[in-house]
Amino acid sequence: MSVYDIPISQSFGTLEKYQGSFILVVNIADQCGFSPQLKDLEVLHSHPDNLCQVMAFPSDQFNQQSKDDAQMQSWCQVQKLSFFVSPVVGVNGECTHPLFAYLKKEAKGWFGQERIMWNYTKFLICPNEERIIRFAPMTKIDTIIDEIEKKMSGVP
């Protein structure tokens, strides 16, 4: 099984159409102190060189997501976010969305830990799943852009 086979949501389907692209998957929450990163995620998604598809997955597992699915979609429109925002999902435990179960196994966190420790943990899926890179919540989008540009130029 590959990341491109995992159903994302009923309306979205799978990631298969993005197989040759960079994809950044991030768990978000509207009341999190890291939520200003949404503007940077939009900059990455709208980059003139079309560097990366950004996909956000709201989660209330850290008690910082105050909006339900419909409210979240409206809030994202007000925030002028053009990237995909899924319905609210689980990122840990029994209710973990299959995409996060896969990503956590493939790109472990500190000390080999799979568990997501906080909102705005990011996973960069390189084209054709060459590599999956996990980034901590405080990682700046510029760092991720640098990583994408290095990969695009062939730097390991």
From TrEMBL:
Protein family (similarity comment): Belongs to the glutathione peroxidase family.
MF (Gene Ontology): peroxidase activity
Tagged with keyword Oxidoreductase: yes
Transmembrane region(s): none
Taxonomic classification: Bacteria, Pseudomonadati, Pseudomonadota, Gammaproteobacteria, Candidatus Comchoanobacterales
Pfam families: GSHPx
Keywords tagged on the record: Oxidoreductase, Peroxidase
Name of the featured protein: Glutathione peroxidase
Domain of life: Bacteria
PANTHER family xrefs: GLUTATHIONE PEROXIDASE
